[in-house]
Design goal:
heterodimer; B: alpha+beta; four-stranded mixed sheet; 6 helices; 10 strands; about 15% strand; globular
């Protein structure tokens, strides 16, 4: 029915099948939308957040998807600036994933701030000392850059591209893409960094507070490194999931292994500094304010198991797996390492958001455990559904994977 | 650590040994500052019924209490068990954790007197300041403020009512500060040199045991100056370096240890200077 809209020379499932899939995704989206409307109408009292946990699932989700979306800027940097040609086979997908992660994070932020109509105040009354101001500037600018990077792909849609003006526009945008890749890399580096900086400057919160390098606490650099150490493999996972669902080969394994190698190298650098940082924090900073390492952990929700899972099982283990070619080049192991890596960065964002503020800084205060309620879960599910929808539409109608025809149809003929 | 200094530095000294934990300060604060009581039902919001009810005052993690009273315990079994009560207003830190993090300069410490201000119409409700403040002195306005019929007639005209979605906090009853300065001007006195007692926040005013003393910490003629320098005085979490302008005093060592985040054998007290 819609086969004329498909990219050149590819096969897609029937329109009916696609509709069933889309409706299922829309059902999840609708559930989240309902929650979002309740939040906007009744206020965020509707959520499980409270005066103790001003930040919760939403901020964790934001930080995690933004870290995982880092594949876009980092792969863009490597492809357009450092000219690693192999990456052009996956660059479209990284841009789409990045766009979804950033726009999704911005949607969550609209729900999360108490006065969404005032979100532009960050530009109008900026506090240049606040890391969050930097975040507001970079996230909005970079989201714009991602839109600019996504547009040429949309313009390359078969029917649209037949219009001469659009064809020329898409071509010219491609020529200048290195510029946007450069701007994107700059903005996103600062954005990832300031997200880490946001926690590192909390002088009243011993779990997160770090000494600094110039105006930035160490966490600034750690967040950048952990994002580039996990973003590329997240794109690999998305790609593999798409292959499993569609039953087609979309990107050759060599490219995925290369992405794994890139992420693994960055993850090794990150783990080196992260371990140094943790040691300096536990041995230097904590005793200086009369606290011990053991006091930073509590019960199951904030236990040491999570600390070791993040650093060892989801940090050191995937770092080693990804840098050793013999392991990385085996699909099952590459995907396992990628999953561990992504879980690790998510745990990192969770502990920095929730455990940081759960720690009872006042000695007579106590630990509280935070549980998100259904409203928060539903709105996060809405963002995931939105992402699935964008990817599904892009895959069906846009030439996302340049290798698809060669990998699936030509060898068999 | 950079501490912002002012010629006048309004501060409190709270004598924990005098505090009975009666909560009068909390009530006075609520009334003075137009803090809406927490009500479960909102008769004007029909969509509310689609989700959960609003929180009432039983949910202590969602109530608005700019002044909060904590119960301290020495942790020993009867008959050696002792308790103490620690009223906690905003600490008006010299080196506040909340001010540098606010992305929109909705909170600032820039006025003579060293009170940390909060501009409600500018706050975007990101709650970063709440995450930053270890004293939990900042409160988010989770629900639209609602006064049961008739109670709205008791609102104070000198304090703005905050909308839903902004962070609010104690400001040492800033309205009273403005009023005291105004009266000084009318009487031909210097508004920047208020005598002791000309300006006191509501909690200080109402405290039945006179546990709270208020004044200029920089002025040797003010009682707070003397008390803050006393042997038994301490500040909460002194070691983190936030330099609060609220001091506590207690003759009981276990109380001082708890408040000070004390390490045995380490001279924590006074390291930040008075």
């Amino acid at each position: 029915m819609d086969s004329k809209l498909f990219p050149e020379g590819v096969q897609r499932c029937s329109f009916g099948q696609f509709m069933i899939w889309t409706l299922a995704v829309l059902a999840v989206f609708g559930w989240g939308l309902y929650a979002a409307v309740l939040v906007l109408y009744n206020g965020i009292g509707t959520t499980g957040l409270d005066n103790y946990f001003g930040f919760g699932l939403w901020i964790t989700f934001d930080l995690a998807v933004i870290a995982l979306g880092a594949g876009a800027f980092f792969t863009g940097l490597l492809k357009y600036i450092l000219k690693i040609k192999q990456l052009e086979k996956i660059i479209n997908l990284t841009v789409i994933v990045g766009f979804i992660c950033y726009s999704g994070a911005m949607m969550v932020l609209c729900l999360d701030i108490g006065q969404p109509a005032r979100s532009w105040f960050g530009y109008w009354h900026p506090n240049v000392h606040s890391m969050l101001t930097e975040v507001i500037f970079c996230i909005t600018c970079y989201c714009t850059v991602l839109i600019i990077e996504f547009v040429p792909l949309v313009l390359e849609q078969k029917q649209l591209n037949k219009i001469p003006f659009i064809h020329a526009l898409a071509h010219n945008m491609h020529i200048n893409m290195a510029l946007f890749a450069g701007i994107g890399a700059f903005l996103s580096t600062f954005h990832q960094g300031s997200l880490g900086g946001m926690y590192g400057v909390l002088i009243g919160r011993p779990y997160a507070f770090r000494e600094g390098f110039f105006i930035w606490p160490w966490t600034f650099f750690l967040f950048v490194l952990s994002a580039v150490g996990s973003g590329p493999v997240f794109t690999v996972l998305v790609c593999t999931l798409m292959e499993k669902i569609t039953g087609k080969k979309l990107v050759e394994f060599k490219v995925k292994a290369l992405m794994g190698k890139i992420a693994g190298t960055m993850l090794c650098v990150y783990m080196f500094f992260k371990i140094l940082d943790t040691w300096a924090w536990a041995e230097g900073y904590l005793p200086s304010v009369g606290l011990t390492f053991d006091q930073m952990f509590y019960g199951v929700a904030y236990g040491k198991w999570m600390f070791f899972t993040e650093l060892v099982l989801c940090g050191l283990v995937p770092a080693i797996m990804l840098v050793v070619p013999a392991i990385r080049n085996r699909p099952g192991l590459l995907y396992t390492a990628a999953i561990l890596d992504c879980v690790g960065v998510t745990i990192n964002r969770y502990v920095f958001t929730v455990q940081t503020i759960a720690f009872p800084a006042m000695p007579f205060d106590k630990w509280y455990v935070y549980y998100p309620n259904w409203v928060e879960w539903a709105s996060c599910a809405m963002i995931v559904a939105y992402g699935v929808l964008v990817i599904s539409l892009s895959y069906r109608y846009l030439p996302v994977f340049p290798q698809e025809t060669k990998l699936n149809y030509q060898t068999g003929e | 650590m950079q501490t912002k200094e002012f010629k006048i530095k309004w501060g409190m000294v709270i004598d924990i040994d005098k505090c009975t934990g009666c909560g009068a300060c909390m009530v006075a604060c609520q009334v003075e500052n137009n803090i809406a009581p927490m009500t479960k039902k909102d008769p004007y919001n029909y969509v509310q019924s689609l989700t959960k009810d609003r929180d009432d005052a039983s949910n202590k993690l969602k109530t608005l209490t700019w002044m909060n009273v904590y119960e301290l315990s020495n942790g020993k079994a009867f008959p050696d068990h002792e308790v103490a009560y620690l009223p906690r207003p905003c600490m008006q830190c010299g080196n506040p954790a909340c001010v540098p993090v606010c992305p929109v300069v909705a909170t600032d410490k820039n006025e003579e007197g060293g009170i940390v201000s909060q501009i409600y119409p500018r706050c975007i409700g990101c709650r970063y300041c709440m995450a930053a403040c270890p004293y939990h002195a900042r409160y988010f306005n989770w629900w639209d403020p609602l006064w049961p019929e008739g109670m709205d007639k008791g609102l104070s005209p000198s304090v703005s009512v905050r909308p839903r979605g902004v962070v609010e906090k104690c400001n040492f009853c800033h309205g009273r500060f403005m009023k005291a300065k105004e009266e000084a001007r009318i009487n031909g006195e210097d508004p920047d040199n208020l005598p002791e007692g000309a300006y006191v926040p509501a909690c200080v005013d109402i405290c039945p045991t006179k546990a709270i003393t208020f004044g200029d910490l920089n002025n040797p003629e003010h009682e707070v100056h003397k008390l803050a320098h006393g042997d038994n005085s301490f500040r909460l979490l002194e070691k983190l370096g936030l330099a609060p302008q609220v001091y506590y005093m207690s003759k009981r060592e276990w109380v001082r240890k708890q408040g000070d985040n004390y390490i045995a054998g380490d001279d924590a007290h006074g390291t930040q200077g008075h």
